[in-house]
Amino acid sequence: MEHLQYIIVGAGPAGLQMAYFMERAGHRYSVLEAAPVPGAFFQTQPRHRMLLSLNKRFNGFPEQEFNMRHDWNSLLSEEGSPLFRDYSEDLYPKADDYVRYLADFAVQHQLRIRYNTRVASITRDAQGLFVISDADGNQWSCDRVIMGTGACAPFMPSDIDGIECAAGYEDHDIDPALYENKTVLIIGRGNSAFEVANHLAGRAAIIHVAIGNRPIQLAWETHFAGHVRSINNTMLEMFHVKALHGALGLCVRKLRRTDDGGYDVVAEEEVPHWREPGMLELQLHYDHVIRCTGFKYVTPELFGDELRPESCKKNKYPVLDSAWQSSVPELYYVGTSMGVRDKQAASSFIHGFRYNIRALFRLLEHRYHGKELPHTEYPLQSASDLEQLASALLERLSNTAALYQQFGVLCDVLVFEDGRCTVFHELPVAYVLEQARFSSHANIIVVNFEYGFKQYPQGTNPLSFITQSDEASSRRCAAFLHPAFRHYRNGQLVEEDNLGDSLTLRYSRHRVHNVMQTHEPMTDDVERNTVMNIINRASNTTSEVFSETVHLVNHAFRPWPKDRPLDTRGLPRCPISEPEAAE
Ligand SMILES: Cc1cc2nc3c(=O)[nH]c(=O)nc-3n(C[C@H](O)[C@H](O)[C@H](O)COP(=O)(O)OP(=O)(O)OC[C@H]3O[C@@H](n4cnc5c(N)ncnc54)[C@H](O)[C@@H]3O)c2cc1C
Hints:
With 583 residues, the protein is an alpha/beta fold. It is 22% helix and 23% strand. Bound molecules: flavin-adenine dinucleotide (FAD).
């Protein structure tokens, strides 16, 4: 039986990404893939063949890293190729182009993939090694297993009696003629449900999307790419401009096929907001019912009883720790499953999990191969050292795609000791706050990106954020994505600070771009000084305090005219008042 250090199960984007790093490190690994090609998931999904991951190819700034912020499909490589931008010009690309891209990525980087190899069981032998068997009885042993099996099976809600008789998102007939002038019930509240509704919106007579007992969430409201995307909003608009279709608070409880080939449906509608709160029970009938209730990301049937990883969330996801290890030691998960720990950034999507996978690879190198975590050392004994470090940090924050996509999930850590600062790159925030070397260290700053909408009153309309944040109030009023700095002493959070938000998320001299000349004020390096002060408060490098006073250099401020009534028109007022600027 061949023994390997790593076996990666699945050659989807996640498995390929991890295989790339294993190949570059020269590890003994193999990817076992059930299908004859990589990226097989995208050969059939999404059903209407358009990806939701943006392919924004022109971004005005030259740095490749910065441009990766807006390329949500390419996999990471030191060579920076292949890039998906060369496979499609569509902003919302075609799934078939992505299959082509993944195939070329696997070939170009000579990844060790065994196709047509469906893993049938994973056990452990007496020596504690994993033993992997495929459906044809072939066996391998290995030290560590990395599951990149993606969406393994449709998720069947257990609280709907007869759900099995509904058509499924994954294989329902998408020929719109079948639904012409018919009534259609779609069960679900995510992108798949609205993708199907959009596709049928012009042919079906009436479409009801049963979204359950709470309003749906739109990605532009929550800034989470997994919520309903605007490209899937047609049906919602039709609902609100009274075009018959509707997204309704129905909780479907029972489905029965009827002789006319349709469905009798029993649904509940919760009305806690009525003067007399209660539940309505509705008897409904539709010609078609389509289940769009998502997928499962666990395969308990593959594992021996003694080795079955714990799962959660209705057995949809594996339970994962801060290094994406399952409850079974040395069994890790990559890809969409990583989303179990992240319902804000992009861990469920290619543009997020590609960075999680790079971080995981580096943690594996550190944990099993004695490699130090990636870091950069800076001297920190003088004001000029401070300026060097702050400038380097601002350059990084102006370009990094990893911290940008994985806001609140991945961070850089500044560790201060003996007159120097060591910056560790792209570590999971949860891991840093758990690991003694960081969590009990005398003096660290954790730097990550985050949104600031939460400090505005609940329900503030995101579309009301149309102006710059109030300069007279505080950079702490930053609503859009911005860098946050948290200073910990011996694991205790002692200070939080941040830089303001910026349309391009580029700071200091990296901000310069002709369009930005007009919209974002050049502020003679107030941002560099702000970062120097933040670092200096932690490191006590110098007794100096650097000016943070904004001198507007490219736009003027005029007070509101006395004769014009003041009307804030629902523009969001920041509740936070300004601490004394350091002068
Ligand atoms: C409908 C839908 C649309 C999506 N659209 C997007 C999008 O537009 N952009 C985006 O970024 N994300 C999207 N996602 C989320 C996610 O990125 C994709 O699901 C992506 O496929 C995840 O990659 P993966 O490598 O984790 O899994 P997958 O791409 O699903 O790959 C898993 C691989 O494992 C193989 N496999 C499974 N079981 C076994 C086994 N026992 N033995 C051997 N091989 C096995 C499969 O054949 C498959 O090739 C979408 C998800 C869904 C459900």
